[in-house]
Amino acid sequence: GGTDHHRVYEDVMELIESADRYGFDVFNSIDHHYFEDFGVASNPLALWTAAAQRTENIRFRTLLHNVGMHNPTVLAGQITAADHLTQGRLDLGVGKGHAWIFQHMSRSLDTIRPRSAESIDVLFKALTGQPFSHDGEFWQLEDTKIAPEPYQDEYKVYTGGTSDSTYELAGQ
């Protein structure tokens, strides 16, 4: 809080460059909105595409994309575009996010859980790069295919959180 946001991004970019130079394998960030005390990470995919232009080997991982906040087909397209721009150095983290962010989106935790679960299903279908249809509670899609196509044949996928529903999701 109180820190110049432009300076924060410059510091993070320098940190990522140093991590790459010293041989670190991966750099993580969160998809985080509304609370600058926890960082200004509202667009980790933009951060990764910028960092990829300044690094050679390090991988980039969002821990995690708050899928219930996003349209999953739009997010899938943004992920694949970022993956092309990072030359395949992108790992994914998916989940529903912290309970205290949803009030700022006019969504309740009761709707975010099923919305997130369905959005993850749609996201994974979209990331196959193949046309798909989906008839669910939140998303109705027919013969949908994202562009650009995925850069990687298969994505490493991570999740995180502290609730029982998150552990159940990870098991699924």
Written description of the protein model:
The chain has 172 residues and is an alpha/beta fold. Helix content is 38%, strand content 16%. It has 5 helices and 7 strands. The strands form 2 sheets. Strands 1, 2, 3, 4 and 7 form a 5-stranded parallel beta sheet that branches. A two-stranded antiparallel ribbon has the order 5-6. Helix 3 links the parallel strand 3 and strand 4. The model has no long low-confidence stretch (mean pLDDT 87).
What do the pLDDT scores average to? Answer: 87
Estimated helix fraction? 25-40%
The number of helical runs is 5
* Shape summary: globular
Strand residue content:
15-25%
| Poorly predicted regions | none
Major sheet details: 5 strands, parallel
Order of helices and strands: HEHEEHEHEEEH
Radius of gyration: 16 Å
Q: Which structural class should the secondary elements be placed in? A: alpha/beta
| N-to-C CA distance | 37 Å
Number of strands: 7
